């Protein structure tokens, strides 16, 4: 368990990993404070957006929807590999998930299958939404995959976590399929190599 990073620490960690970062106006104070806890932090969650077009994707992740207010993550990773910071603090990205999965993340062990939604993930995970239609056909450009790897590694490096602290939304919440188009074990292997 770990306390949340400050906005400056988060930005510094991402840039130190070699990422191109864009600070969206207002991101440092944009959060869901007052709607649940933010921390202690235990991991990084990867999502796909089911959107197309960088500007529209960033705007949706910042603003959210009528039924789900933004921010919908902390960083949006667009097709060109840029990380757009849209939130700092609690964000509406993980929702309720499996407490057994959280316990495995904390222990940095292999994840069990998720079968229940009994634990608040928004309090416990940094979230990165990745621009992709999520249909299994939309491509994942190399620059974007590298940025996903670097962003996950940046958070893990800050906290001294291993690659086991990186999970997909589909590994957390029953019924979710994201990210679709690459495997989470494959991503964790890449993060592991980067953290050596």
UniProtKB/TrEMBL annotation:
Residue ranges of domain N-acetylmuramoyl-L-alanine amidase in the record: 27-180
Q: What's a Pfam family this protein contains?
A: Amidase_2
Species of origin: Streptomyces melanogenes
Question: Which taxonomic lineage is given here?
Answer: Bacteria, Bacillati, Actinomycetota, Actinomycetes, Kitasatosporales
* Protein name (Swiss-Prot/TrEMBL): N-acetylmuramoyl-L-alanine amidase
Looking up CDD domains in the UniProt record yields: PGRP (cd06583)
């Amino acid at each position: 368990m770990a306390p949340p990073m400050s906005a400056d620490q988060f930005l510094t960690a991402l840039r130190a990993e070699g990422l191109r970062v864009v600070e969206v106006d207002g991101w440092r104070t944009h959060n869901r404070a007052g709607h649940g806890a933010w921390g202690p932090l235990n991991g990084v969650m990867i999502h796909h957006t089911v959107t197309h077009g960088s500007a529209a994707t960033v705007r949706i992740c910042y603003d959210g929807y009528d039924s789900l207010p933004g921010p919908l993550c902390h960083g949006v990773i667009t097709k060109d590999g840029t990380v757009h910071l849209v939130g700092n603090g609690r964000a509406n990205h993980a929702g309720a998930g499996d407490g057994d999965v959280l316990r495995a993340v904390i222990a940095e062990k292999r994840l069990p299958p998720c079968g229940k939604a009994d634990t608040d993930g928004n309090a416990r995970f940094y979230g990165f939404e990745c621009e992709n239609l999520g249909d299994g056909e939309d491509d994942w450009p190399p620059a974007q995959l590298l940025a996903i790897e670097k962003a996950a590694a940046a958070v893990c490096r800050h906290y001294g976590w291993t690659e086991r602290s990186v999970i997909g939304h589909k590994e957390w919440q029953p019924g979710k399929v994201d990210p679709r188009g690459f495997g989470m074990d494959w991503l964790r292997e890449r993060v592991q190599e980067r953290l050596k």
